[in-house]
Amino acid sequence: MILEQDVDAFVADPVGRYVTGGGWLHFCAGPKLWGALLWGRAEKQNLTSLFDLVERTLEQADEHVSLLDIRGLEHVDLASFGLIGRYMSKHRSTLERRVLRHASIRAEGLLGAVISGSYEIFAAPYPVSLFTDVGAALAWLDPPMDPSSRENLATFCENASGVPSLLSQLHAVLATDLDRADLASSAAKMGISARTLQRRLHELGTSFRSELDVTRIREGQRRMLHSDSPLTQIAIDLGFSSLQNFSRQFRRVIGETPSAWRQRVQPRA
């Protein structure tokens, strides 16, 4: 498939093309098979752009089967679940008419179980089946594709779903030196050039600064959960310039303020 850089061009002529955004990829392998891949953090701001695009393509799609690969997901915030629910409710009748079958390639562990259960919660208006393998999912969907095209699509999905490993590797590197981490030293530890790391992050719809903030926020969550340290101290220790900056980035990633999150999750005496 061909990468389409312009969303409007993809909507106008989607077959055999795909488009990417922050943590997602949306593709049309053929008129009868549409799909998407998600990785990293399924935040509301990222999913909003994906659902906006899906709404546009849904209007012009014929009857089709759909594939969703979520093996690369690391986190889904509460606001994202609300977004999914509203999308399903708004387009239920259209989805019921146009989606013949839907296969989901699930993530591992608790996150995968929670997301898989959401199909029942939102009462998907089409048959749904869960898989851990692309080939098995395509066999069940049975799109009108020759064996070679089906194999190429499986390879495409496997390669695309492996992209988030870059983020996992980067997060592990950043976690070792959160208050002093920079692009050049992090790239060196990963065995690639700073320019290559920047380019690959851009292709994923993110940046070094954004991933550094996310890694710091995750460590901030751990410290808030397991200590009574003041939020200002945690913010400074993690390399944020101020509590206000920490709070702003925390809310962007998690969907609520640090104090609200801490109050909600800390065990009560």
Architecture blueprint of SSEs:
Blueprint: E1 2-3, H1 7-12, E2 17-21, E3 24-30, E4 33-42, H2 44-60, E5 64-76, H3 78-90, H4 92-98, E6 99-105, H5 109-121, E7 128-131, H6 134-141, H7 147-161, H8 165-174, H9 183-190, H10 194-203, H11 208-226, H12 231-237, H13 243-254, H14 258-265
Parallel strand pairs: 1-2, 4-5, 5-6, 6-7
Antiparallel strand pairs: 2-3, 3-4
Describe the structure.
Strand 6, helix 5 (109-121) and strand 7 form a beta-alpha-beta unit. The chain has helices at residues 7-12, 44-60, 78-90, 92-98, 109-121, 134-141, 147-161, 165-174, 183-190, 194-203, 208-226, 231-237, 243-254, 258-265; strands at 2-3, 17-21, 24-30, 33-42, 64-76, 99-105, 128-131. The chain is globular and about 60 Å long. The mean pLDDT is 85. It has two domains: 2-161, STAS domain (Transcription Regulator spoIIAA), CATH 3.30.750.24; 165-265, Homeodomain-like (Arc Repressor Mutant, subunit A), CATH 1.10.10. With 269 residues, it is α/β, with parallel strands linked by helices. The protein has a seven-stranded mixed β-sheet with strand order 1-2-3-4-5-6-7, with helices on both faces. Helix 8 packs across helix 9 (183-190) and helix 8 crosses helix 11 (208-226).
User: Can you tell me the CATH superfamily of the largest domain?
Assistant: STAS domain
- Spatial strand arrangement across the major sheet: 1-2-3-4-5-6-7
Give the percentage of residues in beta strands.
15-25%
Write down the CATH topology of the largest domain: Transcription Regulator spoIIAA
Order of helices and strands: EHEEEHEHHEHEHHHHHHHHH
Total helical segments: 14
